[in-house]
Amino acid sequence: MLATNSGQLLTLNISAPSREITPSATRHSRGQSGSNHSGLAMGWSEPQLETRASRASHFIDPDSQPARTPHPEEVDPLYLFACSVEWEQQEEPSAAWELLAAARSSHSDTRAHARTLLASSRHLGGAGLDAGSDRITRPKRFSAIEANMKAPYDLDIVENCTECDHSLPSFFCGFSEGTIQALNQVSHKSTLPAGAILFVEGQTPRGMFVLCAGKVNLSTTSREGKILILKSAEAGEALGVSATISGMGYEATAETATPCHVNFIDRKHFLELMQSHSEVGMHAAQCLSRDFQSAYRDIHDLVLTRSSAGKLARLLLSQSRAQDMEEIEVRIPGSMTHEEMAQRIGASRETVTRLLSALKRKQLIRAEGPTLVIRNRPGLKALAV
Question: What predicted TM-score, i.e. pTM, was given to this entire model?
Answer without folding.
Answer: 0.52
